[in-house]
Amino acid sequence: MTGYRLIVIGLLILFAGSAETSNTPSSGQSMSVRASTARMTAHTAPTRRSVSLDGVTLSILEAGTGDPVIYVHGVVTTSNIFQKYLAASSPAYRGIAVDLRGYGDSEKTPTGSNISQFVKDLIALADRLQIEKPVWVGVSMGGMILQQLALEHPSRVKALVLVSTTDGAMILDHDLPSIGNPRTNAEVSEKILLESFPAGTEQELYQPLLDRIPSWNASVLREALTSMSLFNKHGQLSAIIAPTLIMVGAKDDVATPAIAAGIQAQIAGSRLVKFDTGHFMMAEDPEGFRKVLGEFLHSLKQ
């Protein structure tokens, strides 16, 4: 019996050793673990910091690593609309979303909330971050800003993504002088936001955008909307030679599919993608937006 027990104990030790060895990753398994860790790191939460420029301090959100992608928001949104996309294409790309002056956590200056000044601020921001030639992504007013930036600073554009935007005037309010008195910034901004979503949209999709309205004021909104109402780059966009992706919502009645097609016709080699959404497809169809944007960014590496 004693000999039998010794044999059993010996076998148990042998099996235990075999099990331990099988749980130790091989070199291939180690690579898989590292890749998995890299994917998790790529989707870490973005961090916010302030960047001081000449005459204004801007707040930015950033995440991920790799070549820079700078995201520019619209007239009634902030950098927060891009949070989930900043690290989505890391480690190939690093996402940076800026609060334009007067918006979000950026400085509220007495004036300067207009397209021309926003362009100057963005170039100054890229200089301060030592970014020579980023990919630029702009939504609505952000897309208008980036059209002007690409025309004025072609050497500073690696590629363009123009989302829900126009190459001409975008009229979102018909009584601009009354913003602030008697109409408040909150009521005007909320009206613009709600009209940007198709009827019947669930509130949870747009509530995060409504929550950011207090981060800008009436003078900022009034100046920005005035600037948008005077915007006109129609017929000039053929000068843009950077790779360009255009996104549009089929149900968008402001930056319409017809306007998007007109922009595409002017920019040689540009690509147009239509979503079954309203103005804010990144809120209505986040996975679709991420996929289309990711494929475009990947194509730039080819």
Record the SSE blueprint:
Elements: H1 2-22, H2 27-42, E1 47-53, E2 56-64, E3 67-72, E4 93-99, H3 115-128, E5 135-139, H4 141-152, E6 159-163, H5 185-195, H6 203-210, H7 218-229, E7 244-249, H8 257-266, E8 271-275, H9 281-284, H10 286-300
Parallel strand pairs: 3-4, 3-5, 5-6, 6-7, 7-8
Antiparallel strand pairs: 1-2, 2-4
Describe the protein.
With 302 residues, this protein is of the alpha/beta class. The chain has a single domain, classed as Alpha/Beta hydrolase fold, catalytic domain (Rossmann fold, 3-Layer(aba) Sandwich). It contains 10 helices and 8 strands. The protein has helices at 2-22, 27-42, 115-128, 141-152, 185-195, 203-210, 218-229, 257-266, 281-284, 286-300, and strands at residues 47-53, 56-64, 67-72, 93-99, 135-139, 159-163, 244-249, 271-275. The protein has an 8-stranded mixed beta sheet, sandwiched between helices. A hairpin with a 2-residue loop joins strand 1 (47-53) and strand 2. The longest helix has 21 residues, at 2-22. The radius of gyration is 25 Å and the shape is globular. It starts with a helix and ends with a helix. The relative contact order is 0.13.
